[in-house]
Sequence to fold (65 residues):
Amino acid sequence: MTIFPTGETNKSKNINKKDKQGRKQGLWIENKWFGYYTHESAYVDGIKQGHWVTRYSDGTVMQKE
Fold:
């Protein structure tokens, strides 16, 4: 489990949300390359907070940026 600067985790059900202005808020998990891996990061007012975590489909961390 990864805890992001916003306090959310990659196990959260409150993911990929935008506010009324269309800005990303909270944890975002984006599937890439046909679900082979995911990018996870937290956003506040549309600005990325901290780093990306890239995981293989089995959950193993590929890299942190």
Summary: The mean pLDDT is 81. Residues 17-64 form one domain. The first strand starts at residue 17 and ends at 18.
